[in-house]
C-alpha cells in the first residue's frame, strides 16, 4: 500500500470496532499517525496494540466536549498537528422506533452522540487544523438519512442533521483550508451486525445489492482514506454514498 497519508495525523472516534476500527487500520496502513478513540477503552486499546507507535488509543465519550477537546490535544502533543477528523462514533437503542413512541431522552441521547459530538469535534479540531494550513473532516452518516425505514426515526433524523452540519462546515471554513465531507453507508457487515442477522439473511442482502455482495467495514474505510487524502483535495461539502450501487428491490 502506498504511503498516501504519510505525515498526516488523524483522529477517529468510535474506533473500538466496526467501521472506525477498519478506518484506523486503513489510515495507519497508508502512513498516517492516528489517535484512535472510543468510549470502550479495552476495545480501542486492542485495535491500537496491533498497529505500533503510529496509533495511540484514548478512551473518550464523544458526548463530553472536554473529552473531545482532549483528543485534539493528544493529537498535537503526540504527533505535532492534526489533519484529519473522522466523526464516526454511534450508539443506538431498540427504543428508537417511530415519531410517536421514541422517548425524548433517546432523541436527546441520539442527537448528542451523532450531532453534538460532531459539533464538538469540528469546534476543537478546526482552529488547530487551520494553524497548519487546513484539514479534512469526514463524518459517517447513513442511508437512514435518505430513506425511511420502519424504525430508528431519531437515528435517521440525527444523521440527516449531521449531513447539513458537514455542508455548513465546508462552506464556512473552506477558504481556511478545511474540507468537510460525509460517507453514508448502507448495510455494513460489522461485528455488531453479524450478531443480529444469520448467514442466510446476510447472503440475501448481498444478493440483492447491485454489487452482488454485502459492504464490509473496509469498503467504507477505503472511502474515508480517499477523503482524508490529498487525492480528494477539490472535494468538499459532499455526501458520498457507499452502498455498492444500492439494493435491487430490497430496502434497508
Ligand atoms: N454498520 C452499518 O450497517 C452502518 C450503516 C450505516 C451507517 N453506519 C454508521 O457507521 C458508523 C460506525 O458504525 P458501526 O456499525 O461501525 O458501529 P459499531 O456499533 O460497530 O461501533 C460504534 C463504536 O462507537 C462506540 N461508541 C458508542 N458510543 C460512544 C460514545 N458516546 N463515545 C465514543 N464512542 C462511542 C462504541 O463503543 C463502538 O465501538 C456510525 O456512525 C454508524 O451510524 C453504520
Give a verbal description of the structure:
By secondary structure, the protein is an alpha/beta fold. It has a single domain, classed as NAD(P)-binding Rossmann-like Domain (Rossmann fold, 3-Layer(aba) Sandwich). 44% of the residues lie in helices and 15% in strands. It has a 7-stranded parallel beta sheet, sandwiched between helices. The mean pLDDT is 96. It binds nicotinamide-adenine-dinucleotide (NAD). Residues 13-14, 16-20, 38-40, 43, 60-63, 88-91, 113, 140, 142, 185, 187-188, 190, 192-193 line the site of nicotinamide-adenine-dinucleotide (NAD). InterPro entries: NAD(P)-bd_dom_sf, SDR_fam. One of its GO terms (molecular function) is oxidoreductase activity. Keywords: Oxidoreductase.
List the main descriptive attributes of the protein structure presented here:
single chain, 252 residues, alpha/beta, Rossmann fold, 7-stranded parallel β-sheet, 44% helix, globular, binds nicotinamide-adenine-dinucleotide, Short-chain dehydrogenase/reductase SDR, oxidoreductase, SDR_fam
Amino acid at each position: 500500500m502506498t504511503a498516501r497519508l504519510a505525515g498526516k495525523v488523524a483522529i477517529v472516534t468510535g474506533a473500538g470496532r466496526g467501521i472506525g476500527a477498519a478506518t484506523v487500520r486503513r489510515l495507519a496502513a497508508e502512513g498516517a499517525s492516528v489517535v484512535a478513540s472510543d468510549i470502550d477503552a479495552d476495545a480501542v486499546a486492542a485495535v491500537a496494540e496491533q498497529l505500533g507507535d503510529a496509533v495511540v488509543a484514548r478512551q473518550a465519550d464523544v458526548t463530553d466536549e472536554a473529552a473531545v477537546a482532549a483528543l485534539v490535544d493528544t493529537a498535537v502533543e503526540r504527533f505535532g498537528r492534526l489533519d484529519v477528523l473522522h466523526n464516526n462514533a454511534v450508539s443506538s437503542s431498540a427504543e428508537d422506533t417511530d415519531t410517536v413512541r421514541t422517548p425524548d431522552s433517546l432523541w436527546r441521547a441520539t442527537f448528542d452522540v451523532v450531532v453534538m459530538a460532531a459539533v464538538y469535534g469540528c469546534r476543537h479540531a478546526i482552529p488547530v487544523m487551520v494553524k497548519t494550513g487546513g484539514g479534512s473532516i469526514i463524518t459517517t452518516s447513513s442511508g437512514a438519512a435518505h430513506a425511511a425505514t420502519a424504525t430508528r426515526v431519531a437515528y435517521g433524523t440525527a444523521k440527516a442533521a449531521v449531513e447539513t452540519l458537514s455542508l455548513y462546515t465546508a462552506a464556512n471554513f473552506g477558504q481556511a483550508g478545511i474540507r468537510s465531507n460525509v460517507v453514508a453507508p448502507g448495510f455494513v457487515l460489522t461485528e455488531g451486525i453479524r450478531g443480529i442477522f444469520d448467514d442466510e439473511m446476510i447472503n440475501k442482502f448481498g444478493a440483492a445489492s447491485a454489487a452482488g455482495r454485502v459492504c464490509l467495514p473496509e469498503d467504507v474505510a477505503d472511502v474515508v482514506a480517499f477523503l482524508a487524502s490529498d487525492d480528494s483535495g477539490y472535494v468538499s461539502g459532499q455526501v458520498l454514498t457507499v452502498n455498492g450501487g444500492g439494493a435491487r428491490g430490497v430496502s434497508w
